[in-house]
Amino acid sequence: MKLLHHPDRKDLQLASVLYALSDPIRLYVVSEIRKHGEQACNSFKVPIAKSTMSHHARTLREAGVVYTRAQGTQRIMSLRTDDLNERFPGLLDSVLQAYDSSEQPELFTEQEEGLE
Amino acid sequence: MKLLHHPDRKDLQLASVLYALSDPIRLYVVSEIRKHGEQACNSFKVPIAKSTMSHHARTLREAGVVYTRAQGTQRIMSLRTDDLNERFPGLLDSVLQAYDSSEQPELFTEQEEGLE
DNA sequence: TCAATTGTTCGTAAGTAATCGAACTATTAA
DNA sequence: TTAATAGTTCGATTACTTACGAACAATTGA
Predict the structure, then answer these.
(1) How confident is the model at residue A111 (pLDDT cuts 50, 70, 90)?
(2) Is the pLDDT of residue A112 over 50?
(3) Residue B68 three-state SS
(4) CA distance linking residue A14 with residue B107, whole number of Å
């Protein structure tokens, strides 16, 4: 498969990173990776089509928020914690701290409950 | 004039704040307010029409990043530091620290130099 | 080889965002 | 009252974003 492009650490742009993190689904994805470690795209229980998830994964990757590697047919995403902390100290922590304390983590995962 | 709407502290949304901060002009405006204190909209040397600045000011205000009050014909913007720190501890600091250390503060202010 | 799994890419549609200039409002100063 | 100043709002344009399903590609397993 074609190589996935990842920006160099020095090329990370603050505005792009903030933009990538300004979407509820992407925030959720990043928070889940932070909590449970690297994840394949299909591990997130979000109510969107796989092509849409692919788009979000690409947005996060191209902003430099996640590193994506191929493993079999899966794409495993991990947080570029070191790069982000080096370039934007404290940013990732404060965003995820804010997310986990103010959003409902079950926003997507438990939305199927009680529907039948 | 009609009252400007400002969201309550409790209603601040992380994704909205991150989005408001994900634009180069808005980042610059916020950074300038942080460095020099409250500012009127016309104090920013940015290469955009005043209607566009009005739009950015509104985006920042509606996300809860700035508080805007009328003073004569001016709109004075100040950072909602306390509200932001209460809801999203460390976020504003890390964003502005990252901005000031990685962007060129003269991005807009000095772009006219050497053009004649 | 064939089918299933996982994800990407493409085409499309709907919605949103950034930008401008023109017209407007409100305030201040002459 | 008139003019200048500071912003807002409106309409239009252009561009981007999110979203979907269909088609495709790559890998794995039967």
Answers:
(1) very low
(2) no
(3) strand
(4) 14
Interchain contact, A88 vs B103, CB within 8 Å: no
Number of structural domains chain A divides into: 1
Q: Say what the pLDDT of residue B104 is.
A: 62
Domain of B57, CATH number, reads 1.10.10.10
In a domain, A116, yes or no: no
**What DSSP string describes A40-92?**
EGGGS--SS-HHHHHHHHHHHHHHTSEEEEEETTEEEEEE-HHHHHHHSTTHH
pTM: 0.91
Tokens of B71: 């003073």
Q: What is the reported pLDDT for A102?
A: 81
Report the candidate in A110, A23, A115 with the shortest Cα–Cα distance to residue A63: A23
For the beta carbon of residue B25, count every other beta carbon within 10 angstroms. Answer: 19
Residue A21 DSSP one-character state: T
Q: Contact B78/B66 with Cβ under 8 angstroms?
A: yes
Coil, helix or strand at residue A4: coil
Residue B62 approaches strand C within 7 Å at CB? no
In a domain, A53, yes or no: yes
Q: Which residue type occupies A98?
A: A
Q: Is the CB of A23 under 7 A from strand D?
A: yes
Who among A14, A23, A94 is closest to B27 (CB)?
Answer: A14
**Which of B29, B10, B13 is CA-nearest to residue B95?**
B29
